Amino acid sequence: xxxxxxxxxxxxxxxxxxxxxxxxxxxxxxxxxxxxxxxxxxxxxxxxxxxxxxxxxxxxxxxxxxxxxxxxxxxxxxxxxxxxxxxxxxxxxxxxxxxxxxxxxxxxxxxxxxxxxxxxxxxxxxxxxxxxxxxxxxxxxxxxxxxxxxxxxxxxxxxxxxxxxxxxxxxxxxxxxxxxxxxxxxxx
Length: 188
Hints:
Layout: H1 2-16, E1 23-28, E2 31-41, E3 48-55, E4 58-66, E5 72-76, H2 79-83, E6 87-93, E7 96-104, E8 107-113, H3 124-127, E9 131-141, E10 144-152, E11 159-166, E12 172-179
Parallel strand pairs: 2-6
Antiparallel strand pairs: 1-2, 3-4, 4-7, 5-6, 7-8, 9-10, 10-11, 11-12
C-alpha cells in the first residue's frame, strides 16, 4: 500500500513539473533562441466504468476512472509546426486507474491498479509514451473472470492490451499481451 501511495504522489508531482509559461528559452552557444511551446491537453474525464458480478460465491466489483493527471507528454508534429520551425508541440494525456473489491464469505480484498502494475509486460520504449486509458471486463473462462487493460500512445494507433485475472485470493495474474497497433504486428 505504501508503494502505491508513493507512486501516486510521484506521478502527481511529475505531472506538475514544466507547467506554467507557454514559452521556453533555450540557450544555443552564446545566443538565446526563443522557442514557442504548445501543449494540447485532453479534457478532464469524469466518467466511471463499473463492473459488478458474483461467480462461485465471490463478488467482484471493478471501477475504472480517469486520474486527470496530465501524466503523458508526447511530442507532436503538425502542419502548424512544419510552418514554424521554432514551434514545439506536445499532446498531454491522462492515465486511468482501476479499483477492485473482491468479497468472499470470510474475506474482503481491495486492489488499486495503475499503469505501473503492467510495466514488466510492455516494451520499455512504449511504456514511457503510453497511458492506460481503458480497463474493463473481457470475458469469463473456466469460471474465472478475465479483464483487459488497454495501453496506447495518445492520438495514435500504437496500442497494446493485456489480459489478466484476479483470483478470489487477490492474486493478480497476467495472461497475454496483445499488440493491437494498426500495423497488424503479431501478439507477444
